[in-house]
């Protein structure tokens, strides 16, 4: 199973355990392999672009405006030395930029948070949001989603010294951090209704609260927790296996956009020619020690 294989191998590959303490040993992305893969991505022909109002607008502008993050180690991380963003989400965004504009570098990046992702689309500040963005009914009332292109679940992060919390079933009465605007509050309400929830605006603020002892656990998407460990979250550990429903990641688009069909066709092309698998291997598999390549999720 994907989740178990990633979780098990990531703990082995990314950490060294000494006396119960967990120390991150992050593996950097293979930048040369990532850049080469993006540079070999497909390019849409004129008829394909013309079939989509959304893609045609981007083609005419000469730039794809993309909302994302720069601190997600496995999905979208800024390399300050060369100024490039790399990771699974970043790779998809750059491949899509190349597909539309013929040059993967022709994108304009805008930083988003869990609380601002819908608004930047509604305000036409970006053309799309690609940021481990969970597809939910509430969000789908405001915007449209292409995909899903990836699936995840929830996880629990605690200090390595915490022996009381071994899974989400131990969170009753405990102070638990999660991100405002994320799926975390709803997941906790369902699986740990007696937890004392504290919402933070950003992932880093929640991590800081855990590190400082202001909360006893942090519940969010397990891939973000793997990111935290790989970036050096300190003496922390994942408590138990991922839990909850499969969480589909989608590409956020303006409500009613025909970019949904365009991007879904693009994703199918990447899946068929092996690019999706290669991108996952470079961004996540090689860096977590996982050789079990997941099957891309089904989408329209």
From TrEMBL:
Stretch forming the signal peptide: 1-24
Family from the record: Belongs to the bacterial solute-binding protein 3 family.
Keyword Transport assigned: yes
Keywords tagged on the record: Signal, Transport
Pfam families (UniProt xref): SBP_bac_3
Name under which the protein is recorded: Glutamate ABC transporter substrate-binding protein
Domain of life: Bacteria
Xref: InterPro entries: Bact_solute-bind_prot3, Solute-binding_3/MltF_N
The organism of origin for this protein: Comamonas guangdongensis
Occurrences of domain Solute-binding protein family 3/N-terminal (ranges): 63-292
């Amino acid at each position: 199973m994907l989740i178990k294989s990633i979780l098990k191998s990531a703990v082995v590959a990314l950490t060294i355990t000494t006396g119960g303490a967990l120390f991150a040993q992050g593996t950097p992305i293979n930048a040369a392999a990532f850049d080469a893969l993006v540079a070999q991505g497909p390019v849409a022909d004129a008829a394909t672009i013309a079939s989509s109002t959304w893609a045609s607008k981007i083609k005419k502008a000469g730039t794809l405006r993309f909302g994302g993050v720069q601190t997600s180690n496995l999905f979208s991380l800024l390399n300050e030395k060369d100024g490039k963003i790399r990771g699974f989400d970043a790779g998809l965004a750059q491949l899509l930029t190349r597909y539309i504009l013929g040059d993967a570098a022709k994108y304009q990046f805008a930083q988003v948070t869990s609380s601002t992702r819908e608004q930047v689309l509604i305000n036409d500040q970006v053309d799309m949001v690609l940021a481990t963005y969970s597809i939910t009914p509430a969000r789908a009332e405001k915007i449209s989603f292409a995909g899903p292109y990836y699936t995840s679940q929830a996880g629990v992060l605690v200090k390595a010294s915490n022996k009381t919390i071994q899974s989400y079933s131990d969170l009753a009465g405990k102070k638990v951090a999660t991100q405002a605007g994320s799926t975390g509050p709803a997941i906790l309400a369902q699986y740990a209704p007696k937890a004392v929830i504290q919402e933070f605006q950003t992932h880093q603020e929640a991590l800081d609260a855990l590190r400082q002892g202001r909360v006893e656990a942090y519940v969010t998407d397990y891939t973000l927790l793997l990111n935290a460990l790989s970036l050096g979250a300190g003496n922390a550990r994942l408590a138990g296996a991922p839990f909850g429903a499969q969480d589909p990641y989608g590409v956020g688009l303006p409500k009613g956009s025909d970019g949904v069909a365009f991007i879904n066709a693009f994703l199918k092309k990447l899946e068929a020619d092996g690019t999706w698998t290669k991108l996952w291997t470079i961004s996540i598999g090689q860096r977590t020690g996982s050789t079990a390549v997941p099957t891309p999720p089904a989408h329209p």
